[in-house]
Write a structure and sequence with these properties.
This is Abscisic acid G-protein coupled receptor-like domain-containing protein. InterPro entries: ABA_GPCR_dom, Golgi_pH-regulator_cons_dom, GPHR/GTG. It is found in: Membrane. Keywords: Membrane, Signal, Transmembrane, Transmembrane helix. The chain is mainly alpha-helical and about 500 residues long. It has a domain at about 235-270 and about 280-310. It is built from 16 helices and no strands.
Length: about 500
């Protein structure tokens, strides 16, 4: 038996190494370059690294929003290697342990490996994910922001390095203190400290997933709803070309005016202080004119980008892939709408949740499947339990798709909010945030899978000791979280719909 345990533990360690290596290759070849490009994406009107269709006007000027003497941030190569290695290792370890936990559940259902080995590795993976979500990832983000943005290696900055590292622990300690203040549901008594922290983390994770799901549901269904999406005529190539000429003319004018203003400052006979005062004087008509042209250039760039997107979407919609995408998009939009209505019904009629208290999210797919099958078969021929199990897993897949579609916008918004100017630092921060969201989603998903997976087989000697070796016994049941997901889902969906509706009305008013 000891040899068997050693062989099983060795195989799981080897499996971890394989998953870690595969994740590193995936990061270096695909995900990290994509995040690097995502960190560069800015609002329309800003410079872009991607080439755009050229117009025969000679060399076009740079965007007016780009300063003439732009100061770039030069981060030492050692710091670049540091934040890249930290983010890569943490993400790879989190993804590896997530895969191990899912594999252990499959092994439990198939009665592979010994119960003690499964439970030991399960607890290790669960503890690592909790530590990574609560401490390692927030601390790494804080340190990268405090230390990674250091642009020089002078003696003064070196003396401040210890102070910067010490300050990095303050946000993490604040986050942990706030987490411990989250109240637990009534009637729930955690067995130990780890269950106490995990329950609070699941509450936070459920709210986070609900917000992401509500935001993603509106984003995915808005363009496919006829009475919400505005029917605009498809711009022609001539209209796009005219807009490009107009934008190039505005940028040429702005470049000339900025050059004239800079030349006047250089050739002026005033003192340095008077020149600075004249440049930044708020009532200067010349500077007011430049600011007005900058605002006009920004709005024209947004309109041009919108016209290009509409034109490309119209070309894609007439292809076979475009038509197929629109069919699936409409079906998915219907699902998002039904999800929203069902969440509202769960709050208004809480008895529906008590009827299916083992599900994580409102189980609407099972009801639809049973209704469709009842048209062809009798109720006695339909295995309700099997349909409920499959439908819960399909619900998880659909919710995961909704969340994935909204993560890209969330990551881009985080990098803009942090005002990160380094490509690699922005990609590293997004990778760390993605690792934290992935861990939170996994832990919340495990609660749902607790009702989908069959219990582990009984021991050969006939002792009914499954509760002690069941992996799901180490996580709380979902019924203790109530309707947190529904409230956060509806809140995010309502705010997102209101913002999109308001932006659409403002754009329509601006085009009149």
């Amino acid at each position: 038996m000891p040899i068997q345990h050693i062989a099983q533990n060795t195989s799981l360690v080897f499996l971890r190494l394989l998953l870690f290596s595969a994740c590193n290759k995936y990061l270096s070849r695909s995900l990290y370059p994509d995040l690097t490009n995502l960190s560069l994406e800015g609002p329309p009107g800003h410079a872009s690294s991607e080439p755009e269709p050229s117009i025969e006007l000679g060399p076009l000027p740079s965007p007016a929003t780009t300063p003439l003497h732009r100061t770039t941030q030069h981060i030492p190569s050692s710091q670049k290697a540091l934040h890249y290695a930290v983010s890569r290792i943490l993400f790879s370890l989190s993804l590896t342990e997530s895969c191990i936990m899912f594999l252990l559940l499959i092994f439990q259902a198939m009665d592979l490996l010994s119960p003690r080995t499964r439970l030991h590795h399960w607890r290790y993976s669960l503890m690592f994910l909790m530590v990574s979500i609560l401490i390692l990832v927030p601390l790494s983000v804080s340190m990268l922001l405090m230390v990674g943005l250091q642009t020089s290696q002078g003696p003064g900055n070196r003396r401040l390095l210890g102070f910067r590292i010490g300050i990095s622990f303050v946000p993490v300690a604040t986050f942990l203190f706030a987490l411990l203040q989250i109240p637990l549901p009534d009637g729930f008594v955690p067995l130990d400290m780890s269950m106490n922290v995990l329950s609070r983390l699941l509450i936070l994770g459920t709210i986070t997933l609900g917000l992401l799901s509500g935001f993603g549901a509106i984003s995915n269904s808005w363009g496919f709803i006829p009475f919400l999406s505005s029917a605009k005529p498809t711009p022609t190539e001539h209209q796009i070309t005219t807009a490009e000429y107009s934008l190039a003319s505005i940028r040429n004018d702005l470049r000339e005016r900025r050059a004239t203003a800079e030349q006047q400052d250089i050739q002026g006979s005033e003192s340095w202080l008077s020149r600075v005062g004249a440049t930044f004087r708020p009532n200067s008509e010349y500077m007011q004119e430049i600011r007005g042209l900058e605002a006009l250039e920004y709005q024209m760039a947004r309109n041009l980008e919108s016209m290009r997107e509409f034109r490309n979407a119209a070309k894609f919609s007439v292809t076979f892939r475009g038509r197929l995408y629109r069919v699936f998009g409409r079906l998915f939009a219907v699902y998002c709408i039904i999800r929203t209505i069902n969440s509202l019904a769960n709050i208004i009629l809480p008895t529906r949740r008590q009827a299916s208290i083992s599900t994580t999210y409102p189980d609407i797919i099972s009801e639809l499947i049973v209704y469709i099958l009842s048209l062809f078969y009798t109720r006695q021929d339909i295995q309700i339990e099997d349909i409920m199990r499959i439908s819960r897993q399909l619900s998880l897949v659909f919710v995961g798709i909704i969340i994935l579609t909204s993560i890209r916008l969330v990551l881009r918004g985080v990098t803009r909010a942090l005002r990160v100017t380094s490509r690699r630092l922005g990609a590293s921060l997004m990778l760390l945030i993605l690792a934290q969201l992935m861990g939170i989603y996994l832990l919340s998903t495990l609660v749902q899978m607790r009702a989908s997976f069959p219990p582990p087989p009984k021991l050969p000697d006939g002792n009914d000791n499954t509760e002690a070796i069941n992996l799901f016994s180490t996580i709380p049941a979902y019924e203790v979280f109530g309707s947190l997901f529904d409230w956060s889902f509806l809140l995010a969906a309502g705010v997102s719909a209101f913002v999109r509706w308001g932006a659409q009305k403002m754009n329509e008013a601006g085009e009149v």
